[in-house]
Every structure is written in C-alpha cells, then in structure tokens.
Amino acid sequence: MQKEKVTLILRILGAVFTSAVIVLPVGYFLGDRGLRWFPDTVNILLICLFLGIGCLLGSASIGGLTKITPKGVVVRKRIIFLSTVLAAILSVHLIGCRLQRNTPLTCLTPPQIQTMTATHVEMLEMYDREMDSLLAQLEKRDSLKQSDAPLAAADEQFLRQCWLALYDYAFSIDQIRTTYTDWYRFDISRSRRPLRVQSFLVLYGADVIGYEKALRVINLIQQNPNAVAFLNAPHPGSDIGDASFSRLKKQLFGSDCHSRLVAGQVYLQWLEQGLKSRTPNDCGSCLALWDTIDTKLAVLDEMDAIERGKTVLDADMEHLRRGLAHVWFPAQKGVAEWMGDTRLHRVGEYLITPELQAELDTILQPGDVMLSRKNWYLSNVGLPGFWPHAILYIGTPDKLTAYFDDPQVAAYLKSLNGKETTFAQYMAQRWPQKWLRYTAGTGQSDYHVIEAIKYGVVLNPLSKACGDYIAAMRPKLDKVDKARAIIEAFSHLDKPYDFNFDFATDHALVCTELVWRSYRPGDDKAGLNLSLVEIAGRKTLPANEIAKAFAAQTDGDRQFDFVCFIDANEKDETAAFSDEATFLESVSRAKWSFLQE
User: Fold this and answer.
1) Which helix (H) or strand (E) holds 295?
2) What pTM was computed for the model?
3) How far is Cα 135 from Cα 155, in angstroms, rounded to an integer?
4) What is the pLDDT of residue 45?
5) Which of 13, 128, 214, 243 could be 55's S-S partner, Cβ–Cβ 3.0 to 4.6 Å?
C-alpha cells in the first residue's frame, strides 16, 4: 500500500513538472518581464523537465527496474527511455553552460554597446556618403569606360587615388561588420532584445552597404579590362596591394556575402513582423539605419537576379582564374628568358665596334629614342618585325646636366618644388639612391641609357645597349617635355620586366612600354602619341611599330627627327653609319638573321 502511494505521488509530480515545461513558455511569452530566454528560462525549463522525468523514473523504479521474459531478465523499456531522456537533459545543460562564455562583444555593458553602435552607425553613414561621392566621380569619367587601350596617365592617377579611398572604405565597413558577428549571443528576451536588435542592425547594415557598393564598383570597373588589370597589379609605394580588385570581389561580393544578405533579410522581416522590434526602444540609434537598409535592399531587388547571380559567380571564380595565371606565368617567363639568353651564332660578338659607339655617343642627345637589334637571338623570333628593342638615351651625368641647364627647364623644376634648382639637384633630391647609382657608373664606364631588359628596368652603358644595328630618333619636343620624360623613366627604374607584355599595368615594363610611358602625353605635357597595336587580343607596342610609324609619316606630321642609323652587313660581319632612306627601308626587312647574310 505504501509503495502504491509513493508511486502515485511521483507520477503526479512528474506530470506536473513535465506539464510546466509546456505551460511556462506560454506564460513567459505573454508576460516577458525581462527574464532571459537563455540561460535563465531555459535552465528553469530544464530543471522542471529534469524533476518531472526524475519523478517518473522514480515511480517506474518502485515497480522494479527489470522484468522476467521468456528471453531472460531484461531492463524495462520505460526505465531505458526515461534514463535516456534524463541523460539528454544533462547533456543539453552542459552544452548550454559552454555556450554562456563571454565574447569581446557580449562582455561589454549595455551603455558601452549602445555608445559603440551609435558611433558605428555614424561611421557607416559617412562611408556610405563618401563612397557614393567617389563612385559618382568615377561614373562621370567617360575615359575610364573606354576599353580599347590602356588608361591615360591622368586616368591612372585618378583611378589609383579613388580606388585607394574606396578600398579603405570598403574594408573599414567590413571591419565594423566583424565587430558584431556575435550578435546572436544576446538573448531575445525583452531585457536583452535591444542589444540583440541593435547589434544585428549594425552588422547587417554593414553587409548591405558593403554589398551594394561592391556591386556598383565591380560593374563600373569591369567595363574596362584595362582598368581591372591596372587595379590588380602591384602598386609599390602605395597602400594598394597585389590583386586588390580580385580581393575586393571575393571578400565583399562572393557567394558567402550573397548568402548572408539573403539570410539577414529573412531575419530582419522576422524582427519587424514577429517581434515588432522596429521601435525606438529596441532599435535605439539604429532605427534610421533600418530605413537605409530597406532602401538599399529595394534597389538591389530591382536588379536582374540572373545578372547579379553571374556577378556573384564571377567573383567566386576570380581567384581560380588568377591561380591558373600564376601557374602559367612562371612557365611563360622561363621560356622567354631562355630565348633571350640563347644566341645561335657569334656568341658574345657584335658588329657595332667601340669606335662606332664613341662616335654615336657624340651625336646623341638626352631624350633620344633608340631602336636596337642583336642578331641570332631566339627571342627575335617571338617579336614582330626587324626591330625588337627600344631604348631611352640619357647620356652621361655631365652631358645630361649640361643639356638641361635651360631657363624653361629651371622654371618647370621651380614649379615642382618651389625653389631654384638644377636638374641634377632635383633628381638627386627626388631619386637619391637611383641618382647616386647613375652618377657613380659601373666603375669602368658611365651609364648612357635606361632600358627594360630581362633583369628589369636598368641603367646601362652604351656598349651594353649596342649590338649589330642601332637607330636613333629625336622627339620634336622642347627640353621641358624631354626632362619630364627622363624624370618619368627614373620613376620606373628597378621595376621588373613584364613578361606578360601588359601595357595596362605599370608595376612591370617591357622596353617599348618604358619609352611609351616616359613620353606619354599628360597634363601640360605634349608628349608623343605612340599608337598601340593589338596583338593576340592585347594592346601593345612592338619596337618595329615605332619605326614603321616614323616611316609612314610625312615630314610635317613626324613626331621625331632622324638622328642616325648604324647598319650591319652579316656577310662581311661589319657595321657602319648609313642614311635615313636606308633606315626607312629597314622596317620591311626580314627578322630572320640568316636571311641577312
């Protein structure tokens, strides 16, 4: 009789405690006086459930833990089931205890969090306005949308400055977002709900603003492949790293960003419609940010979903494409270097003698553009036309300094640094290490030229630049433009050789690109209009095209004056000065060395 009473009491208590697990959440939802769902309410429910199951397990145990069956003595199924539930409750409690650990966000006090969110909302609004302004400037610059040629010098400078600001803003927005990645650890109960809502709004606001700006930037820049190549190239001396455009696409516009945008939009709707949290009490200083989010989501929703999907997929594929390029480029570079080092005949011997070189040096002036050819190199096979190489002559330090001892050059240099200075003083101040190296020479000879060879953009004596054929043309420009060209050439000194032959980037250069960039027209700079040609789908400038352009122009239209031409005779293995007519004819010669014998 006593056992039956105890069993009945335990069953009643078990039913009461177990029922409380269902009744308490309803009462909590209706009252919600500030008790936290997690861990407070959850722990209360777990305790009630634990007591209820414990009582039911106790009542079942009174009747015996086992029973005899035809198969032998076995544990009652009810005991096994209730024990399993009890163990599950304990496991959930232990997991809950681990989840209660504080993070850098949740360990802050409510006033600290509200101050921080208010500051970040102001920062997001500022970044949003500033990026809108920069994008508007980029959108107005029609020259950036032209994809048929590398960017002009002014466009490169403008794009680099705008991109640096956009890039900083974009990743500053992303840093704000990462500050609130633990927003979900704030409880949804009334006492903690404002912290949860405000943290989520700042995080999602950063996501939406960053996504919308990234989409506009990508769509704008991708109109011009040359602009993409320019931004993906390294920019030494600036804060723009390698592959900056690809990195922005991947980190701020990939599929993971798109997934966060969609998931956040669903949760935002639940906050508004389910919890009725779009109020000053819950949102605080973030209420206006909610309006901004809605506006930007509406704009994004109006866009073509398929086109957006293609852009997202393209962002995810960007690093794969660049990875393949990094695999291919070393092989391409290796082949090019091997061909440049391999000479099939007269190894180490050239036809332009030291005497001819000395006479040539007396004729040349700083700023002259030289075309050079060394026969029997395999690299000549891969380059179109007779002339494979272009060089910028600067002369010895004394010759260069004397040449630019000019009132107009002095006035230009004064406009740059605000004081009277000579060309040598200006160069020594702007490029101290490079100028010191130039003035020191090799120890055996002075430097005479700047050229881009396989080792990169280097200074060389005339003896290194000369081979079997040489031609020189003098730009029909004043000394100020020539001075600016040489200053520009020094800025590229020590850059690597561009085995990719990409004129859209300036982190690495080929020989003709050094000449092209040095004399490229710009603000108040007449320069030379050296037209690029398309080869294998890319705009470039073979050295032979410079000679062809000179030959095709009439005397009144020519941008150069003829200076000299040293022609060679492979059969006699001799070289000598020739005339302009012979030089004009050289552009049509075969590039095969054996045909010149």
Assistant:
1) helix 287-302
2) 0.66
3) 14
4) 63
5) 13
Select from 77, 5, 90 the least CA-distant residue to 49.
90
CB hemisphere CA count around 328 (13 angstroms)? 7
Separation between Cα atoms, residue 259 and residue 263, nearest integer Å: 6
**CB neighbour list of residue 531: distance below 8 Å, 6 or more residues apart:** 541, 545, 549
Half-sphere exposure of 116 (CA within 13 A, CB side): 19
Checking if the pLDDT of 29 tops 90, the result is: no
Q: State the amino acid at position 588 in one-letter form.
A: S
Write out pLDDT tens, residues 38-56: 555 666 666 666 666 666 6
Q: What is the mean pLDDT of residues 173-201?
A: 87
Which pLDDT does position 480 carry in this prediction?
95
What pLDDT, in 10s, does the model give residues 413-424?
A: 999 888 899 999
Which is it for strands 72-75 and 66-69: parallel, antiparallel or unpaired? antiparallel
- Helices 153-179 & 193-221, crossing angle to 10 degrees? 160
The residue behind tokens 């010191």 is 436
Of 142, 124, 133, the C-alpha closest to 162 is 133
Residue 268 contacts residue 293 (beta carbons within 8 Å): yes
Compute the distance between CA of residue 108 and CA of residue 198 in angstroms, rounded to an integer.
Answer: 14
Helices (H), 493-553: 511-518, 543-552
In this predicted model, what pLDDT tens digit does every residue of 525-536 receive, in sequence order?
888 998 888 876
Instruction: Grade residue 153 by pLDDT with cuts at 50, 70 and 90.
Output: confident
Helix, strand and coil percent figures for the chain, each rounded to 5: 60, 10, 30
- Nearest-CA neighbor of 449 among 486, 478, 422, 499? 486
The distance of Cα 286 from the centroid of its chain, to the nearest Å, equals 32
